[in-house]
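Reference record
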Amino acid sequence: MNKRTFSFVFIFSIFIGLNYAASPLAASSNIGVEDKLKNATDFKLLTPYYSPSSFKLEIKEPFPLVLGRSISKVRLHYFDKLGKTYMFGIEEHKADGYNVRRVETIIDVHNQTSTEKTIVEEFKFDVRGEKININGIEARFVPWANHKPGGYLRWVQDGTFIEIDSGVLTKEMMVELAKSMK
């Protein structure tokens, strides 16, 4: 067994247990949920390869999940098989033509008032971080500031922006996970 295969097997042998959730509540069945979610997105949703007994999955966004409606952003949270330890999250949306909404709050201390305004701007890929190769695609890795394992790994694949975050997996484990995404 070569080092790469061993690393990949090691990553997934650490975890045991996968259940899908259509909301932040655990679902009792995972039959077809991933395929239905993939068919409902307006981008190509990519998911990591995993053993059916690897993780407990929570579909964090969209919430509530309405499969008949077009979905423009997906946020998946993967937990250990007991659902107690957050292992990693994956966020995905279109890489081009996707608008990001952010709320800006302006506080006037002198008049003791505050105002909020929503700013909508086109998504731009953040090129900060260490260059990493994911199946021939340039990705960026940014470690946590406090030197914990993990960080953020982001790239664009097949027109989809993908970002994995983890405070448990090492950079190498995150890269192997990213390489398995299809």
